[in-house]
Amino acid sequence: MKKDIEKYLAAPGTKISLKNFDTNYHGALDKEAGKLELEAVKQQLDDFQETLYAADSNSVLIIFQAMDAAGKDSAIEHVMSGLNPQGCQVYSFKTPSAEEYSHDFLWRHYKALPQRGRIGIHNRSHYENVLVCKVHPEYVLSEKIPGYNDVKKIDKTFWKERYESIRNFERHVSNNGTVILKFFLYVSKEEQKQRFLDRIDDPKKNWKFSASDITERGYWEEYMKAYEMAIEETSTEKAPWFIIPADKKWYARLVISKILADTFEGLKLKFPVLPKEDADKLLSIRQQLVDEK
What we know:
alpha/beta, Rossmann fold, 6-stranded mixed β-sheet, 6 strands, 12% strand, PPK2 family polyphosphate:nucleotide phosphotransferase, kinase, P-loop_NTPase, polyphosphate kinase activity
């Protein structure tokens, strides 16, 4: 991994304190230089995606988690805009349906995994079950898990087992060819406030704002602790977490794109080589086309 992006990695097995990460970091770049660099990296991603699709051996799962207004949607839009939509699938996970609550918490996420050769993007993910559910443990009761019919029973052991379930799930998926990248877009509380105000003041953005956003903002410290614990417990060699400074959206997009490009490069994928018999047949067909009158 290149040193300029290694700083965003939540190293597996280390204690995570978000206070050690600067939400406003943007290196020595300005916005215009960052945009130009992003366009160059996006071209790389387009080339890599074509190879991924042709090789048909791996898939890539990209997970985005963040507080409201951190820029998940715009990051997906800008970073992935150069990719072929036929090779991508985006899922935005909302509150589970009655059918989803009738299964274990990973069921709907397993169903949404990308097939080989494709890129899957999860806007929110199975991590909601150790983030929003950690802050609001009463939500766990809707899962109707035997032995957990009271919030008081949802203790440290419960969360320890849930983290373990996530690690096992991601290990299994990774061992079967899916490359997993997890991004926490780390925005400051002050920047979130400004973005909320922008949404309220601009009629074209009013639809983005929900009163529940303010309610959840009131649990900011609890969410930060939940994120720290989730990242600490589940950042692994095969499914690493990256903590992305998100106060400047343009910089967050650039960092994400660089990490993706570095990951693709590390896969060392190549276009398939035809067996000699098929290659000879292809040359014969080519000659047939050339000779056609």
